[in-house]
Amino acid sequence: MIAEALNTIKAEISDQVTLVAVSKTKPVEDIQTAYNAGQRIFGENKVQELTDKFDTLPKDIEWHFIGHLQSNKVKYIAPFVSMIHAVDSLKLLKEINKQAKKSDRTISCLLQFHIAEEDSKFGLNLEEAQLILSSNEFVELQNISVVGVMGMATFTDKEDQVREEFRTLENYFHVVKSHFFKYNEEFEHLSMGMSGDYKIALEEGSTMVRLGSSIFGVR
Ligand SMILES: *Cc1c(COP(=O)(O)O)cnc(C)c1O
To answer: Does the beta carbon of 46 lie inside 6 Å of ligand 1?
Structure first.
């Protein structure tokens, strides 16, 4: 089932798009099955669950942390995590930098934007992102690399609304890119699209989709 689902999805998305297989709540056996089918990038949203899975599973997996991350837990994942998707404060960036430095690593981060109409404590608006990126404190961080942006659309079956929200995020991506990362080729990721809306996200320019239930089944 998992291998078939992966093949179907890979046939639908271009080679240029990164597929993050969201394995949260799923057992290591399921991840191993996806791994055996060739998948190497997995997304988790709980620190304890991620560190447990990292310990047991093959070491060439690229682990993406996709959930809200508390500063005091960064230290547990900093030694191995490949990318942190939902960075929405300078405080968190500074802590990631500090812990990455201890492991002599550079950690790729995405800035999370709030694009949904739903109330959420998480995610930046454009002004907040610009304040962070233009601060001296940010410029001094040597062990993080901001490589793009991420966001989540409203959970609704109103396609027009979801599309509009993805367009907003795509616009933020270009604004941030042109103001702060114009000559930085690493800033290239637009992480948007989940199982319910990734087709729309791809039409609106997503370069990275995060798919859980469409690969592993309902949680
Ligand atoms: C759970 C989750 C996903 C995957 O959701 P599905 O609907 O199962 O594809 C993607 N992104 C984030 C941030 C998530 O928390």
So the answer is: no
